[in-house]
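USER: Fancy drafting a protein?

ASSISTANT:
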Amino acid sequence: MTQDLGSRWPTGLARVFGRGLGSVLLALAPSPASADDFARFEGPYLFEFAHARQARASSAMTIRELNALPDVVRDARSPLLVVTTGDGHLAKMIVSSALRRLKPNENQGPLVSVLVIERFETIDAADHASLKARGRGVILFDGFEYDLDTGQVVPEGAGGDVMFVAQGVSGPRMVALGKSRLLAVDKPPPAAASGNGPSEGREVRPGDFAGRFSLFANGQWSGMVDLKIDHDLVVTGRFRSDLDGAVYPIEGAVDPALPRKIVFTIQFPRSAQKYEGLLWTEGKGAIAGTMTMQEHPYGFMAIREGSSLAPPGVEVESPHPARLAARRVVVTILGEPDRYRMDGAVLSGEELTTALKAIVGERPSAHAIVRASGDIPYDRVRGLLLLIEQAGVQFIRLAPSTNGDGPATKPR
């Protein structure tokens, strides 16, 4: 939660925090553009970057050093770091500094410096695609440790990867713990080579389906699809779910009689989704069609990464891919008091509210699904509903708890 400090910011603190203070009034609400650009820092590029920069890795970075880093995520207000975690995975994170009152209800209470992890994703070192954890709007007070492999604040000695230290001669700083190391990102990844795109002209060739697409199905399922096409028109690839970050295999084929038609299946542990779609002939930037799951048909759309949906010669702004579907978040009530799970991270009620406000700020149409087992008391469910409402979420749906197998939600 941020406070409007106006002219009451101490001059000394302003020198220490630099641009970090400017983010106080904007805290925890990354812009849509930065959220999309954040996705470019992944896969082999990210691991190659970490390997090449290993000699320059550091065990700590002060707020001054963080503020001196260039802005490499488009339109972001904060720097980007890569952290090698204690378990050998890589976490990319946007961080900023802020001031917070120890007692938010007291307008004249003492101010303390905090570190804000605006957004992070921890990528599995085994396949460079699956996510181990991710989260938004994490606030670290002085001495707090954070485990990037599990996405939660942990006590001292319990496997934390980074810690925020507010005191000391060098001033506020972020410290890497154990085997973890910090890598500053000082330039964006290279733009994709133009030869990797679809063929020119209106004639669709089977290879035009190859590439990365943002997939949205029935407003319930979304994620990133990577497709490959071999010479026999066989389709292979993988789908990474927006909900849990898990990766699922894709198999299918391009129709030899109609090269602009594709059929592929996303295989989940206990179910499957079959997609039949047509690639647009103009621009070849989108696939549209139907998805079938448990014998129920639904509509879907997949938008090619970096493509424009506007007709050639028409100068209109294309919709931001991430905004074509309403953001859906799933919040599970855990057995421990004041503990909830969202996006793979375990949060307190205050942390959950902060993270939800950031999501609503980015996508006002966001809606929530609340999951709870039968032994959760009614008062806890009611309390969570109030927290979600206070964060600005307009639509909330209740659902039973799930073991996490299969896609994000069952068909409606």
